[in-house]
């Protein structure tokens, strides 16, 4: 395929006000980065990990893959450990889940955090067929690995916690465990950005988003500028960035996807009073099936999606900091 060479832009006169306060964005997504993120997505959704089912050997092996990738990028572990275990209690036995968490210190607001989340678990195997979960959610997981690389080179003003959650497909267990285990820093978490299904299928044309409580962290002016930027991406981007999701309950889902506020890990952060933005394509014909594999994702769409999500992350980081500076 012709790989999309995506540049993260500096000030653009044509784009107007959302970027006027940003002198330079901190990184460029290169063709090499595109190849790398696609390779991660391909690997994570391969049969090697047998569908990454919660508390399975495939899950353990995918954890090892993530930690190896983070170490190769010299990304520090969160609180000096990558593996953060939790238990799922059952009637006859309990199972262990494991969040993988990394950390990149900010340049200015070191003790305040933006948490980037993507769940790496999926459904495992059914009827001897591997449910690879390429879109759901190797796509978001691979994107976080790319963002880790970019932010290691050029950190944001706020510190970033990279949270690869386990057990999202099992009642959002990993996100709930993180909130419970990190109660001491919850008041310091400014924002959650959650990526869950951002590669779609071959026919996917829209990247949806949902945001809540951003007025807690952005002034009216900055929030309006963010909306302008998102409107720009709706009409001037190949991913057609679109607010909101269709209210459809999908067959086979463990979560009622009609309730998009609680459809993925962002819902747990929202319940804890933390503002969020959730990016995803919504359900499609390959959702929770054996056809959600690497061959069936929309690669060009995916590469464009990770670009515009990252641009919004950079804008919000700068906008929050500018709002936090005393007059």
UniProtKB/TrEMBL annotation:
It holds the Pfam family Peptidase_M28. GO terms for molecular function: metalloexopeptidase activity. InterPro entries: M28_fam, Peptidase_M28. One of its GO terms (biological process) is proteolysis. Residues 99-307 form the Peptidase M28 domain. This is M28 family peptidase. It comes from Colwellia demingiae.
């Amino acid at each position: 395929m012709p790989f999309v060479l995506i540049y993260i832009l500096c000030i653009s006169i044509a784009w107007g006000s959302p970027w006027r306060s940003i002198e330079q964005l901190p990184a460029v997504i290169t063709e090499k980065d595109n190849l790398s993120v696609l390779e991660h997505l391909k690997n994570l959704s391969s049969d090697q990990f047998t569908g990454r089912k919660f508390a399975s050997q495939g899950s353990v092996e995918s954890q090892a893959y993530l930690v190896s990738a983070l170490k190769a990028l010299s990304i520090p572990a969160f609180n000096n450990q990558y593996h953060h275990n939790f238990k799922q209690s059952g009637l006859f036995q309990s199972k262990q889940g494991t969040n993988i968490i990394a950390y990149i210190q900010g340049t200015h607001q070191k003790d305040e955090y933006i948490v980037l989340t993507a769940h790496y678990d999926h459904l495992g195997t059914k009827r001897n067929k591997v449910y690879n979960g390429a879109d759901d959610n190797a796509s978001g997981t691979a994107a976080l690995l790319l963002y880790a690389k970019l932010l290691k080179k050029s950190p944001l003003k706020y510190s970033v916690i990279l949270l690869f959650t386990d057990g999202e497909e099992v009642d959002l267990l990993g996100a709930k465990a993180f909130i419970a285990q990190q109660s001491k820093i919850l008041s310091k978490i400014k924002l959650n950005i959650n990526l869950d299904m951002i590669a779609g299928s071959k026919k996917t044309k829209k990247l949806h988003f949902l945001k809540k409580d951003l007025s807690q962290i952005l002034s009216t002016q900055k929030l309006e500028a963010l909306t302008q930027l998102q409107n720009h991406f709706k009409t001037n981007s190949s991913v057609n960035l679109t607010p909101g999701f269709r209210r459809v309950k999908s067959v086979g889902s463990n979560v009622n996807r009609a309730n998009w506020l609680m459809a993925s890990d962002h819902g747990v952060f929202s319940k804890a009073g933390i503002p969020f933005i959730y990016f995803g394509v919504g359900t499609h014909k390959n959702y929770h099936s054996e056809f959600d594999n690497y061959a069936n994702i929309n690669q060009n769409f995916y590469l464009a999606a990770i670009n515009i999500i990252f641009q919004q992350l950079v804008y919000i980081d700068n906008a929050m900091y500018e709002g936090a500076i005393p007059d």
